Structure formats: structure tokens, C-alpha cells
User: Which sequence fits this backbone?
């Protein structure tokens, strides 16, 4: 039998938390870790301790959206967890901005909570079309040359023909544009 996959749920809205729990109860494939203000559990510590594979963060509850986006970004950068954002916002600009800021691999409207189990299962696949779209949104700020350098860095390739100074400038530009 496969071990359950650890999923962190960061939710401060008790009503939405109950809906999520209802939808995920009985999902034997998942091992769920819940955090809310009353739990006393630090989400970053919980993610590290449980080796979380996916973190679900509602960016509309609790503190300001900006603080929650910063937290979600920190969670994504400090763990290996994929990030699914939940929000009521349907503003295209806000959605794209949130995805780029947090390096999220998924976005779910609050009204779509009934499908959360299916979304989580799809995010556990190696790569989904949804994730390719999210990656393109994040990398759209890079020039084609910067993308080539980024892919080479990620793959450990040294096939780039540019001078060391040009490559250094492109690396700096990539880090700046991705706010790293």
C-alpha cells in the first residue's frame, strides 16, 4: 500500500475550512495537516516536519492578502511543496500577479471548493497542462535569452555560447525579475 501524501491546508476562514475538510474526508491518498490561528501550528514548521508535497493557502482570509501572498511565497521557496492558492478574486490581474509572486502551480476559486480533491490529485502528477500555463505566466517577464540561461541553469547545462560577463548579467536580471 502506498503511503498517504502529506498536504498542508492553511485556512483561517472556519466555514471554508469545514467545506474543505468535508470534501477531503475519506481521501485515503492524502494525509492532511491543518493550520489555522487556533491550532498554534506554525505552517512553515509543519510543512518541513511532515515533508509536505502540496500546500493549499487561502489568500483571502486572516491577515491582508499581501501578507498571505508573502507567506505563500516563503512557503514555496523554503519547501519542496507545490502551491495551490484559493481565492474569491476573479480579477485576471490579481490572479496572474498572485501566481507570479508565489510561484503557484494552481489557483482555485472559493466557489470551486467542491472540486478540491480532483485538483489536488491532478497536481500530484509530474506535469499538468495547468502547471505549464502557470510556469509560462511566471516566466513571461523574461526575455528569450534569459529563458535560455534559466533553463540551462536548471538543467545543469553548459552549452551556452555567450560570454561569462553576459551570462552573469542575464543571471542577475533573471533573479531581479523573478524577485529572488
Assistant:
Amino acid at each position: 500500500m502506498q503511503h498517504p501524501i502529506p498536504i498542508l491546508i492553511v485556512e483561517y476562514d472556519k466555514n471554508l475550512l469545514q467545506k474543505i475538510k468535508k470534501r477531503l474526508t475519506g481521501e485515503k491518498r492524502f494525509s492532511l495537516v491543518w493550520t489555522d490561528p487556533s491550532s498554534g501550528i506554525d505552517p512553515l514548521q509543519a510543512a518541513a516536519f511532515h515533508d509536505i508535497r502540496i500546500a493549499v493557502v487561502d489568500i483571502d482570509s486572516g491577515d491582508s492578502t499581501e501578507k498571505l501572498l508573502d507567506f505563500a511565497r516563503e512557503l514555496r521557496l523554503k519547501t519542496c511543496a507545490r502551491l495551490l492558492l484559493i481565492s474569491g478574486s476573479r480579477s485576471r490581474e490579481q490572479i496572474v500577479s498572485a501566481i507570479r509572486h508565489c510561484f503557484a502551480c494552481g489557483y482555485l476559486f472559493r466557489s470551486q471548493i467542491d472540486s478540491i480533491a480532483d485538483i489536488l490529485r491532478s497536481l500530484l502528477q509530474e506535469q499538468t497542462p495547468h502547471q505549464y500555463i502557470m510556469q509560462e505566466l511566471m516566466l513571461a517577464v523574461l526575455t528569450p535569452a534569459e529563458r535560455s540561461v534559466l533553463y540551462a541553469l536548471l538543467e545543469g547545462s553548459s552549452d551556452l555560447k555567450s560570454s561569462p560577463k553576459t551570462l552573469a548579467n542575464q543571471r542577475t536580471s533573471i533573479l531581479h525579475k523573478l524577485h529572488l
